[in-house]
Specification:
Blueprint lengths: L2 E9 L4 H13 L5 E3 L5 E3 L4 E7 L3 H13 L5 E8 L18
Antiparallel strand pairs: 1-4, 1-5, 2-3
Length: about 100
Amino acid sequence: MNESYLVRVELHDAQWSHYETLHQQMARAGFSRAIRGDDGNLYQLPDATYTVQDSPASLQTVQNAAEAAARATGRKYGLISSNFKSASWNGLPIVPRSQRAA
């Protein structure tokens, strides 16, 4: 059964360039900076928050991948991963179609 996961990473004593590296590494590992709503739209998550939706991976596998991405920044970090069946949000901007990955 596939699961959906939410991951939040905080880099300590980091510059924006460290977060750019984190975003690149997380994307390579299959994480998204957006979440799909029931309305079909993609919503931009807060900075350094990521999802993996409809994945066969285990929570530990997701955690390990996120830790590897955080380590690649060269900064100390704090990280939390959780699985979810549903999510609710307010005020997140819709990702414009022109900015969505093909």
